[in-house]
Amino acid sequence: MAFCTRCNLCEAPGTFATAADVLRVPCNVREFQEQVFTLWRCTGCGSIHCKEDVDLSKYYAQYPLKDQKPGFSEQIGYNNRLRLLKRHGIGRSHRILDYGCGAGLFVDFLRQNGFHSAQGYDPYVPSYRDGGILKSSYDAVVSYDVIEHDDDCRAFMRRIPPLVRPGGVVVIGTPNADHVPIERKGDPGFHPPYHRHILSERILLALGREQGLEPVAVGRRSFYDSLIPTVNSRFLWRYLEKGLLDVVCEAPKTGLVLRSPDLLFLAFFGYFVPLRDYIMVTFRNSGQYGWRN
Ligand SMILES: [Zn+2]
Predict the structure, then answer these.
(1) Mind giving me the DSSP string for 20-38?
(2) How many A from CA of 24 to the centre of ligand 1?
(3) How far apart, in whole angstroms, are the C-alpha atoms of residue 200 and residue 12?
(4) For residue 213, how far is its CA from the centre of ligand 1 (angstroms)?
(5) Which domains are delineated in the chain?
(6) Which of 24, 46, 115, 276 would bridge with 200, disulfide CB 3.0–4.6 Å?
(7) pTM, rounded to two decimals
(8) pLDDT tens-digit series, residues 233-286
(9) 174 burial type by CB count under 10 A (0-12 exposed, 13-18 middle, 19+ buried)
(10) What is the largest CA-CA distance in the chain?
């Protein structure tokens, strides 16, 4: 284990000692909410790093999202993810892999919508741990909210091209370090110590290009953003800020919303005041690297 005090992402790596911003941010999981971590922004690339290294297995043992059930927001959000894939030519006959699928909710959603070849892989979830899944190649690989959990984001990206046929689609969704609101330490984009590195847009695109993944579309909103009341990232992030990440798996806190003028406002109008603190990049695999014939 080593502290992250030097950027492992960019060509002119900044260090903790010369950081552009330094924040002390508490963990937003109830079990660990007393613990505070140091986040710092690289002067070279604008990415944000969690300084402390920890035994993450202890933290994932209590991770609330392991028990996440599909709710109303997820149905809308997953439909937005699916529309993005369709826009890039992915249909029901295509093979899709959700890389880092967690509880597999999006895999279930795809299958329910006729994408019967959809698969999921997640080494931390027993039902999706089968490494055999990674021996196949896919028409599309999606990975939402995963790369920022990896200690080595470059190594993460290197693992993607061998999974995608040349010309296939890769979608990476992750918080965007360029716009995470540093004045709001409870913002779920920070999420220490689980989020090891929050990438700037420039670095995310560069990591893809290094692996022969050519960016073809950049969306600067969350897949949760919709005009439907309460289903937009500004409302959802603020709701998580007030209730901690655990609320994802709990009954809706209607009283909390009704007592909070800011939550009420964002429930209806959040879509129109986006933070742009999330990014979804669609890449095409050039097949230049890592392709197994
Ligand atoms: Zn950097």
Answers:
(1) S-EEEEE-SSGGGTT-EEE
(2) 19
(3) 14
(4) 20
(5) 64-285 (3.40.50.150)
(6) 46
(7) 0.94
(8) 999 999 988 888 888 878 888 888 889 999 999 999 999 999 899 999 999 999
(9) buried
(10) 59
